[in-house]
Design goal:
- The chain is mainly α.
- The protein has a domain at 29-96.
- It is 69% helix and 0% strand.
- Helix 1 packs across helix 3 (68-82).
- The chain is elongated and about 70 Å long.
């Protein structure tokens, strides 16, 4: 039994690369969006706000989402709201990522 010719192996590898890139993109896109939103919240947080508090508030807000799709939708809504503000006030921060997940609503 002959092994596959080298050209065929290369062709298979080239054909698999886009599928692999797509799968990795689907897997890591939510992680990347969450990272960007978290870093933007940290940069625009009110002066003197503890970064650990911002991270924990975002984590608790996202934990209140029932599934991955709703969490991603919430992240996009937060990101869209963050575009409007050069700097967040404490009230803006409370609206975007409430101190507790009770009363957590999607931002405007």
């Amino acid at each position: 039994m002959r092994s596959m010719p080298p050209r065929f192996r290369i062709l298979c590898l080239v054909a698999l690369l886009p599928a692999l890139a797509y799968a990795l993109g689907r897997l890591y896109a939510p992680v990347l969006v969450e990272y960007v939103v978290e870093e933007t919240l940290l940069q625009k947080a009110p002066t003197g706000m503890d970064p650990a508090l911002v991270r924990s508030r975002l984590a608790s807000t996202l934990a209140a989402s029932p599934d991955r799709n709703s969490r991603l939708k919430l992240l996009f809504e937060i990101a869209r709201s963050l575009e409007k503000y050069p700097r967040l006030t404490p009230e803006d921060m409370d609206r975007l990522v409430p101190a507790s997940n009770q009363g957590a609503t999607a931002p405007d």
